[in-house]
Amino acid sequence: MKRLTSVGAVAVLAAAGLAIAPAGASVRSAPLPASGFDQPAAVQSEQTLSAKTAAALGLGKGEVLQVKDVVKDADGTEFVRYERTYNGLKVAGGDMIVKRTGDGAISGVTYNRNATGVGVKSTKPTLSQSAALAKGAKAAGFKATGNQGTLVVYVTPAKPVLAYEVVTTGVKADQTPSVLHSFIDANTGALLASDDEVKTGTGKSMYAGTVTIGTSGSAPNFVMKDTSRGGNYTTDLNGGSSGAGTTFTDADNIWGTGAASNRQTAGVDAHYGSQLTWDYYKNVHGRNGIFNNGQGARSRVHYGNAYVNAFWDGTQMTYGDGSGNTHPLTAIDVAGHEMSHGVTEATANLNYSGDAGGLNEATSDIFGTMVEFYANNANDVGDYLIGEKININGNGTPLRYMDKPSKDGRSKDCWTTSTGGLDPHYSSGPLNHWFYLASEGTGAKTINGVNYNSTSCNGTTFAGVGRDVAAKVWYRTLSTKLSSGSTYKDARNGAINSAKELYGAGSAQCKGIQAAFSGISVPAGSAVC
């Protein structure tokens, strides 16, 4: 396997900045993030109004709203994301988005799976909890170290159903931990859906050269903790698979050697990736950390033994050392990809199955790619290839191709009604293809030394609107339009409406976003430019 590692010692400036935000197309003033917006305070304020909001929406008796997130535009417009309970039971898939104008009036509402009501005939199950637990454990397919179940209301595409949410924890055969949520019909015992909290990706190493990372402390006790980015910090698991790990420290604030044999090197790469991702979301989208609350996250390196993967588990990033423990999975796009799973979880919380699973994975590919372009690192230039540095296939080819996803032999270029039945890493193909087409358009071109020649699924040819525009549209779609069970058709409607809000109805940007969705065969919906 080709070995790609950082070359040379890494000079570090404490809490140093990294990159200049790339220039994007001008946008209309109203949809910009509100200056000085305090997201935690906004969440608390909206929660005090939740009962009045439920009444204004005409929600059924027993339905209670819980505020999850608030996005505010400069003109005062707010998008408030709620979750629901029914008669004290959690409603899985009951999430919704309420749009408020600057004067507080409700101007629109988007219900996940059109679930305007989430009541069920009875909250008394006929299936025993022990039977549901057994079904959940069987669905997991690994030896469980924990298995718990609670009654919930699960929103299917057809109707709300009383179900058990069985949470099975354990470790898969490839050393990846799992926190699997299985939804079991509380009357029939049918498996309705499953979703794993641990979202995984694949990679081997990075080659970023000498970089600057944010640290704290003073000689001889510098710490790999970035207080300027919410306290992002990086730890060494030293081959373990649990716990926080040991935070990296250093006497002279010069970290790593660029060789995998030096334990600090993987830490440098992971820390660099976390700060790049923080800076990208902050400087481009106005997002204050993964959770938009100013709090940083932990990155753990040297997980397990020869673990060829990396994952986000809901609170932190974890990287294995790859084949032979010599290829840490710490490439820029891998880091951006995995941490973007955290952003998705904190916003739309897209399921990891059906169309939503593909949208979830593609979102991480999109923003992992954008973090890589944002980094502007001469040793790992931006491209539309996913995992191009890892050489996991042994022949220099990347994991995925955004310009033509089917080149990996499994992903789909075009959306069909069967796309949602694929593994999310492959049902992500159409949205990855959309992002490339929206960014660059059709036809042959060379970008940063890589040749592309993408074609649309409907045979049309068109120019792209630029990756910065496409990414801003998709971020707004993710944060203000999509919910846990969203489909590709929802994504098209949401992206077109987001483009109209950002750039105006009839704008070239909106038309380009629309053309790209037609270009991956997602049929027209209610939203048009």
TrEMBL record:
Pfam families on file: FTP, Peptidase_M4, Peptidase_M4_C
Subcellular location, principal: secreted
Chaperone among keywords: no
Domain of life per record: Bacteria
Location of the Peptidase M4 domain: 200-345
EC number: 3.4.24.-
Named cofactor requirement(s): Zn(2+)
FTP domain span: 65-110
Record keywords: Hydrolase, Metal-binding, Metalloprotease, Protease, Secreted, Signal, Zinc
Record InterPro entries: FTP_domain, Peptidase_M4, Peptidase_M4/M1_CTD_sf, Peptidase_M4_C_domain, Peptidase_M4_domain, Zinc_Metalloprotease_M4
Keyword Zinc-finger set for record: no
Residues passing through the membrane, by range: none
Protein location: Secreted
Signal peptide positions on this chain: 1-25
Domain Peptidase M4 C-terminal, chain residue ranges per copy: 348-522
Function as written in the Swiss-Prot or TrEMBL entry: Extracellular zinc metalloprotease.
Similarity comment: family membership: Belongs to the peptidase M4 family.
Protein name: Neutral metalloproteinase
Annotated organism of origin: Kribbella ginsengisoli
